[in-house]
Design goal:
The complex is a heterodimer of chains A (286) and B (661). Chain A is mainly α and 286 residues long. Chain A contains 11 helices and no strands. Classes of the chains: A mainly alpha (286), B alpha/beta (661). Chain B: InterPro entries: AAA+_ATPase, ABC_Ni/Peptide_Import, ABC_transporter-like_ATP-bd, ABC_transporter-like_CS, Oligopep_ABC_C, P-loop_NTPase.
Chain lengths: 286, 661
């Protein structure tokens, strides 16, 4: 009753259309970013690690579209090529986190008992630290490199999925269709795989895109501090870090373009996530 | 007082449009109880919302909702706020959901009185107590301190009524006030509405899908179908000699406790996208002619106050052959196949106890206290009792979903504890919530074939058996690829039954299989179940709080009360000649159409689980209680072919005679 409006004569609902717009804009941004990453070599005349000895800190325009940095590398090309690393690590890390977290959540939520206790205490330990501090610690332990970063970022995000899925499973397991499956002789694994998994993923679908955005920020943060991807590999966080001193000297073009690229991509993930959330809400309201 | 004229409501949603109400007109006078009946989708709740000015967003209303001379549809916000508190007040279907869970019910009531009636705190507390007493709440000052979760369903509904009547509204609207309540309570709550109309001269609009239960308290009845009023008239007229085919279908869909069987009407209610141009009931109507399919019938008056919208008013009596000729039918029902296999026991429950341990500390809830049952193949056992008596626990126990803390359960000769996964499928269950018992992201085909999957049946064989089960349910095989949310309740329940049948089990447990369905769909499903239960190959347990549906096809019946069997025996003997006071009370409060009831036993108080501790469990509610009852546990005593657990049975007829005279 509470969600009903009190007006007898009114217009149609806006929720559905708003959600759709968010999803379109968000995924539009991400598709453009992904295309830029894929076709980066075609879109830039310089290589990402190619050094132009004659043009360190060249201003935008001329030979370098967005100028060049302190090492004489082309900023435009590096911004494009960095999208491969940033998007790639973020998406892979979140995918890994979803798989691992969901699995742990399923086991803990459905089996309960000591399995639940042990798994959730481990999750507690992970969640006891601020995400970024934990990421710092794990990456210091594992070292840099593409796959180590994927593992680092997945490790800090997986506990949240474990908790989310566990909570969902704990309500789902009391449902009549689970009882029906039990009385139909389904095995424990069968119930988890065939019934609990597909039904517990709804919130995960909403959180995962938002999470990709945060993962990019974590990665950029690590690289900014020199723990993630290091120069000369093109990565937005390390590029921003490299350019900080230039900005003070008035040479904005080394830091601002990677910063903007990061902002736009995170925004894309956020909008997509918001849109999915909005759509799920609109559905449940009906 | 309330005068609805030509009210139409169209709801616009992106991509679709629903004509929720089309040209609805009726009125409610002060002191009158008007019943608004029909199945879900008929527009009952929409009428209620229109009256309090709370139509859903996107709706467009035309016509007039006249209330004491004003039109609710054209009120501004301030007038509406005043109208809602004092003009028309609403009692919701789910009273616990409508009460704020974190504040005591007394606080909620007193606050309301202070804001709307300009009372000071002390006077409000006084009148709160009076209001509680007026709706039959014993010990009102103690109940005022209670939080909603501490109240039973019936108590919560009483609180809701007192909240609604608190501001002395002219009109009380009750939206399905007794859904989910037991027969004994339903009667009690409906009386409260009658009382509100009689003593305070209020108008009462009683919305219900269940014609029979509101029959007793209504003055007039309005029947809705697909957003149109099909019949209006005095309750006695409409309920006993209805003329509209839909009203008749509705009434015939309800099985009668004295043995009358439900007659099913095929089809379901259409969803209207615009005001109908023909008779919306025509596709389901046996009397429909071309006129019905082409033109919409006008509402015509038959006699004073009785009108209907139909070209072919029916006149012959509603139940032509319902006099307990059912006996012959039900004995003919026992086919020869039955006796042949009659020796095979498919379920044996011996002295089973179930205790739900509370998670913290030592206490626990003793849900079953020594139940023994035996079912042979081809036999159907009915299990009845109020909610909280242990019916669902019994079902879970049989299915192996809960473990007995004492005693044993054997399905097809094998203890439930020692079953393998395949043996588990020997007992199948049909659940109460048809859609909720189907996995939301699995297709219908997947759901039906689930028991076969466990039994390692090959894919080809699975498809074949699934199709066969589907055919028996009279469903088209195109439904196999659909998802549960695309199904209607009736279809979903047929799928549930198909799933139970597909592995040819030894036992099927039906746990309230029709209570979540609409009345005419209920009758269709009951037909299907009666057919399935008559199979000689398996035994059936039919659990229901509705005595009439059990009577329809059970061979024997067990009456449960607080985890104990209080009476058991052949269904006709127990229902025609009940012995135990509890059974008598249950049967006495079961709704009957067309008769004035004489309840010979009336229970006092509501069911309370704490009563089960010592002596006879019914002692606290039984009008014939003695000290012996309070101290001694009762065991089942044989009478005729039945048994009942009450030591005063021989004296009861005399006692009942005394109390009623």
């Amino acid at each position: 009753m509470a969600s009903l409006e009190m007006l007898p004569v009114v217009s149609g609902t806006k929720d559905g259309r708003f959600a759709k717009a968010l999803i379109y804009v968000g995924s539009g941004i991400l598709i453009v970013a992904a295309l830029a990453a894929i076709f980066a070599p075609l879109l830039s005349s310089w290589g990402p690690k190619e050094i132009d000895p004659s043009g360190t800190l060249a201003a935008p325009g001329g030979e370098h579209l967005l100028g060049s940095d302190g090492n004489g590398m082309d900023v435009w090309s590096r911004v494009l090529h960095a999208a491969r690393i940033d998007l790639g690590i973020a998406v892979l890390a979140v995918a890994l986190a979803v798989v691992v977290g969901t699995l742990l959540g399923l086991l803990a939520g459905y089996l309960g008992g000591w399995v639940d206790d042990v798994l959730m205490r481990i999750v507690d330990i992970f969640q006891a630290f601020p995400t970024f501090i934990l990421a710092l610690a794990v990456s210091a332990l594992l070292g840099g490199g593409f796959f180590n970063l994927v593992i680092t970022i997945a490790a800090v995000n997986a506990p949240a999925y474990a908790r989310l899925v566990r909570a969902e499973v704990r309500t789902l397991r009391e449902m009549q269709y689970i009882e029906a499956a039990k009385t139909s002789g389904a095995s424990t694994l069968g119930i988890m795989w065939r019934h609990l998994l597909p039904n517990s993923l709804t919130p995960v679908r909403v959180i995962a895109p938002l999470n990709c955005g945060w993962a990019m920020l974590t990665l950029a943060g690590l690289s900014f501090l020199g723990l993630g991807v290091t120069v000369p590999t093109a990565e937005w966080g390390s590029m921003i870090s490299l350019g900080t001193s230039d900005v003070v000297a008035g040479r904005w073009w080394t830091s601002v373009p990677p910063g903007l690229a990061l902002l736009v991509c995170v925004l894309g993930f956020s909008l997509l996530g918001e849109g999915l959330q909005e759509r799920a809400d609109a559905k449940s309201r009906r | 007082m309330l005068q609805i004229e030509d009210l139409s409501v169209v709801i616009h949603r992106p991509g679709r449009q629903v004509a929720a109400l089309s040209n609805v007109s009726f009125s409610v006078a002060p002191g009158e109880v008007v019943g608004l009946v029909g199945e879900s989708g008929g527009g009952k709740s929409m009428v209620a919302r229109a009256i309090v000015g709370m139509l859903p967003s996107g709706s467009h209303a035309t016509g007039r909702v006249g209330f004491d001379g004003d039109d609710v549809l054209r009120m501004d916000a301030a007038a509406l706020a005043h109208h809602r508190g004092r003009g028309a007040a609403m009692c919701f279907q789910n009273p616990r959901g409508a009460l704020s869970p974190t504040r005591t019910v007394g606080r909620q009531l007193i606050d309301r009185l202070v804001t709307h009636q300009d009372m000071d705190g002390k006077r409000a507390a006084e009148s709160a107590k009076e209001l509680f007493a007026a709706v039959g709440i014993r010990n009102p000052s103690r109940r005022l301190e209670a939080y909603p979760h501490e109240l039973s369903g019936g108590m919560a509904q009483r609180v809701m009524i007192s909240l609604a009547t608190g501001c002395a509204p002219g009109l009380l609207i009750a939206d399905e006030p007794t859904t989910g309540l037991d027969v004994t309570l339903t009667r009690e709550i409906l009386r409260q509405f009658r009382h509100a109309a009689d003593t305070d001269g209020r108008g009462v609009l009683l919305i219900s899908h269940d014609l029979a239960s509101i029959a007793e308290v209504c003055d007039r009845v309005v029947v809705l179908y697909a957003g149109t009023v099909v019949e209006t008239g005095p309750a006695a007229q409409v309920l006993r000699h209805p003329a509209h085919p839909y009203t008749r279908a509705l009434l015939r869909s309800v099985p009668d406790v004295s043995g009358g069987r439900a007659v099913a009407t095929a089809g379901g209610m259409p969803l209207m996208t615009a005001a109908p141009h023909n008779c919306p009931f025509a596709p389901r109507c046996a009397h429909a002619t071309d006129v019905c399919r082409e033109t919409r019938p006008e509402t015509k008056a038959l006699s004073s106050g009785w009108s209907l919208a139909c070209f072919h008013p029916q006149e012959e009596p509603l139940f032509a052959d319902t006099v307990p000729s059912n006996h012959a039918e039900s004995s003919g029902h026992a086919e020869p196949g039955r006796s042949a296999e009659a020796g095979r026991v498919v379920l044996r429950v011996q002295d089973a106890h179930v205790v739900y341990r509370s998670r913290f500390g030592s206490g626990g809830h003793h849900a079953l206290r020594g139940v023994s049952l035996e079912i042979k193949a081809g036999e159907t056992l009915g299990v009845v009792g109020e909610s909280g008596c242990g019916k669902s626990t019994l079902a879970k126990l049989i299915m192996g979903l809960v473990e007995p803390s004492e005693g044993s359960v054997e399905v097809a000769g094998k203890s439930v504890r020692k079953q393998s996964r395949v043996e588990r499928t020997r007992a199948q269950m049909v659940f109460q919530d048809p859609i909720g018992s189907l996995s939301p992201r699995r297709t219908v085909a997947d759901s039906i074939a689930e028991p076969l999957r466990a039994a390692k049946v090959s894919t080809a064989e699975r498809t074949k058996k699934t199709e066969a089960a589907l055919q028996r349910m009279e469903l088209d095989s195109s439904i196999l690829t659909r998802m549960p949310h695309e199904l209607s309740g009736g279809q979903a329940q047929r799928i549930g039954i198909a799933r139970a049948l597909v592995g040819q089990p030894d036992l099927i447990v039906f746990d309230e299989p029709t209570s979540a369905l609409d009345v005419t769909v209920q009758a269709q499903i009951l037909d299907v179940i009666a057919d399935v239960a008559a199979d000689a190959g398996h035994g059936s347990v039919f659990i229901s709080h509705d005595l009439a549906t059990v009577r329809g096809f059970a061979d024997r019946v067990v009456v449960l009360y607080l985890g104990r069997v209080v009476e058991e025996g052949p269904v006709d003997e127990v229902f025609d000649n009940p012995q135990h006071p509890y059974t008598r009370a249950l049967l006495g409060s079961a709704p009957r159409l067309g008769e004035t009831r004489t309840a010979d036993v009336e229970l006092v108080k509501d069911l309370d689980e704490a009563d089960a501790a010592t002596g006879c469990a019914l002692a606290a509610r039984c009008p014939f209680v003695t000290d012996t009852c309070r101290s001694q546990e009762q065991t089942l005593q044989p009478y005729g072919e039945s048994r009942a657990a009450c030591w005063r049975i021989p004296e009861l007829p005399a006692l009942i005679g005394k109390s009623s005279s």
